[in-house]
Design goal:
CATH architecture of the largest domain: Beta Barrel
Number of strands: 18
CATH class of the largest domain: Mainly Beta
CATH topology of the largest domain: Porin
Helix content: 25-40%
Strand content: over 45%
Largest sheet: 14 strands, antiparallel, barrel
Number of helices: 9
Distance between the termini: 54 Å
Number of domains: 2
Organism: Thioclava arctica
CATH superfamily of the largest domain: monomeric porin ompg
Strand order of the largest sheet: 3-6-7-8-9-10-11-12-13-14-15-16-17-18
Protein name: Tetratricopeptide repeat protein
Structural class: alpha+beta
């Protein structure tokens, strides 16, 4: 038997013929040449045979066919994809990635680009480079031209993410605010019946918040019912004061209110054997700074039990304890504890949630020591409204302090918060969409210094899958 592959001349044609002949003999099970007949196949037939070999689970036969096609037609998009598939199945990952990247360069439209990007991701994921694979799957979703191919890219992304021991998440945004310093609404307070003017930096100052954070996690142990992860958080915020704020407090700077924190934590989750749901436990050690100076070191333990019920309902019971060692003043150190209930239920229109929390902060500093109780409500719409994914939130918290300096009564705060979040999913790029948030916070306090209002607008990026 003599097999001729079309599309090459001279030495190239001889190499193609030899590669293809070897593949044909292997795929047909020939141990020796059984006939002297010439068999001539064109590129389309070679492509079809290589595809059948791959689908039949014989990449060792498909690979030389694909190599022959690529040698004859190096600018053939489909041949490069075939070569990548076959090489990947044979654990030849460098070759698989190189062929897929060549296909990406050759792609003539968005759908071909999407296919090539998914193929690059498959090669990377198979070699264990799942974080890079996730990047290429985001690109695949971005360039896809049909809902079906985009859905495939998102499905593959979630599959790879679930198997990636590394997880990296970031948050970056900007938030104009009417009260960046938590200052009082008043410009005058009364002490023992006499009025005293508040300094500008004790009053409400408007400005713009800039915030950024990154979270990195690594799975260090995983079984069917148990997951242990080690993680790190780095994040913070700084401000730019408005002209109005600077007129009130000429010596103030936005960096005076900057806050940064670094955390390391170990988390455990394991499924309950008694009823549907899971347990979770997390230990966190952290350090933070305020206004450019060290503020505190802290150690926190929190955990809980989630119960899953029929009808897409869940209830989590949680508890938290924390010790703060203040570095600005030892008297400000504190012990914190809280218990919480969180209920979630999915209905046709979306997901609504209810949260209840009660906590206590014990400190020698009267401005820190307090008791608190709070309740929150939330709703996430299941379908976009006018091209946006909407969610609503509302919360109320009551705090009871002791007697503040220059007061003759216990301080009581009643804080109300209302929020609206809109994710502009139709404006996404590589799975990241702008999120616009509106937040109104009103803290009503019987101590004038702590009576405050804040209205803020935030703009940040959010992953849509």
């Amino acid at each position: 038997m003599r097999v001729i592959g079309l599309g090459a001349t001279g030495a190239g044609r001889r190499n193609v013929a030899l590669s293809f002949a070897l593949a044909m003999m292997l795929s047909l099970g020939f141990g020796q040449i059984a006939s002297s007949r010439d068999v001539t196949l064109n590129a389309k037939q070679m492509h079809a045979l290589a595809s059948r070999e791959l689908m039949a689970g014989r990449p060792q036969n498909a690979l030389p066919l694909a190599e022959a096609l690529v040698a004859a037609h190096p600018d053939d998009f489909g041949a490069q994809l075939l070569l990548s598939y076959a090489a990947r199945d044979l654990a030849r990952f460098d070759q698989a990635e190189a062929a897929a990247r060549r296909a990406w360069d050759l792609a003539a439209n968005g759908e071909q680009k999407s296919s090539a990007a998914r193929t690059i991701a498959q090669a990377l994921s198979s070699r264990g480079a799942r974080t890079r694979a996730q990047f290429w799957l985001r690109r695949a979703a971005q360039v896809a031209q049909t809902p079906q191919s985009k859905a495939v890219a998102i499905r593959d992304f979630r599959y790879v993410r679930a198997r990636n021991p590394w997880s990296v998440n970031f948050d970056i945004g900007v938030s104009p605010s009417s009260n960046v310093n938590g200052g009082s609404n008043a410009d005058t307070i009364w002490i023992y019946g006499f009025p005293f003017a508040l300094s500008g930096d004790a009053q409400r100052l408007s400005g713009t918040e800039f915030h950024a954070s990154v979270n990195v996690e690594r799975t260090i142990a995983e079984t069917k019912g148990h997951l242990t992860r080690l993680g790190f958080n780095l994040g913070g915020r700084t401000y730019r004061l408005s002209e109005d704020a600077l007129s009130k407090a000429p010596t103030a700077r936005g960096s005076d209110y900057a806050f940064w924190a670094l955390e390391a934590y170990l988390s455990n989750r394991w499924k309950s054997t008694a009823s549907p749901g899971e347990w979770d436990l997390r230990a966190t050690a952290g350090h933070n700074e305020y206004g450019g100076a060290a503020l505190s070191n802290y150690l926190q333990f929190n955990g809980g039990r989630r119960f899953d019920f029929e009808g897409a309902r869940s209830l989590r019971i949680g508890a938290s304890i924390e010790t703060q060692w203040r570095l600005d003043s030892a008297a400000n150190s504190a012990e914190l504890g809280s218990v919480s209930l969180d209920y979630r239920q999915r209905i046709a229109a979306g997901i609504w949630s209810l949260g209840v929390v009660a906590g206590q902060v014990n400190s020698d500093a009267v401005m820190i020591d307090h008791d608190r109780v709070g309740v929150s409500l939330g709703f996430e719409f299941s379908k976009p409204i006018l091209g946006t994914e909407l969610s609503l939130s509302a919360g109320y918290e009551a705090r009871k302090y002791g007697v503040m300096p220059f007061d003759t009564f216990d301080r009581h705060d009643h804080r109300t918060t209302i929020g609206l979040s809109a994710v502009l999913s139709e404006q996404s790029y590589m799975g990241f969409a702008p999120e616009v948030g509106l937040t109104y916070t009103r803290n009503r306090s019987n101590s004038t210094l702590y009576d405050s209002t804040d209205f803020g607008v935030s703009l940040r990026l959010r992953s849509t899958f």
